[in-house]
Amino acid sequence: MSETNKKQVIIYYSLTGSVKKVVSEISKLISIDIIELKPQKPYSKISAFTKGIFQNFFGNKPKIKNNIDISVYDRIFLATPVWASSFVPLFNTVLNICDFKGKEIVLISCCGGSNGKTFDNFKKKLKGAKIIGEITFIKPNSKSDLSEAVKYFISSLD
Length: 158
Ligand SMILES: Cc1cc2nc3c(=O)[nH]c(=O)nc-3n(C[C@H](O)[C@H](O)[C@H](O)COP(=O)(O)O)c2cc1C
Prior knowledge:
This protein has helices spanning 18-29, 45-58, 90-97, 118-125, 146-155, and strands spanning 8-12, 33-36, 75-81, 104-111, 130-138. Strand 4, helix 4 and strand 5 form a beta-alpha-beta unit. It is an alpha/beta fold.
């Protein structure tokens, strides 16, 4: 098990619950603060495919209700559903607001089949940060061994 004494936070968004489930598994294993991204204009399952994909395509930064301060954290987990082969547009906002330089970063995505360019796109925006781990869960809601997979990944981080 990870016994790091680093201060850790996970920043995540979840529309249909799979990223949330992974976050819940992680929080059972390590001491970690949790920030759930709250869009000022919430997505529905339909608007995710219309507005969400549009915002994704144009690199928009939708407003969020959260006030995020990552300055106290050493290690930051970024957990996103894959939308149109990338992270959700709310992370454009986060990447714009926060300075990740010098931070340790763990990238997590959940998808229906392929993570596409999600991690490549994160890495382009995370210059100066140290990516220490990355994992994609395909259809995590239907995985009976999700807890074990999360446990194995977390234990590999230190
Ligand atoms: C708008 C939208 C676009 C999506 N695009 C992709 C995609 O490009 N590739 C993929 O494998 N899954 C895609 N999916 C499926 C989600 O990534 C997958 O269901 C994920 O587990 C959802 O996470 P959540 O339950 O935490 O919201 C998409 C889902 C939505 C709603």
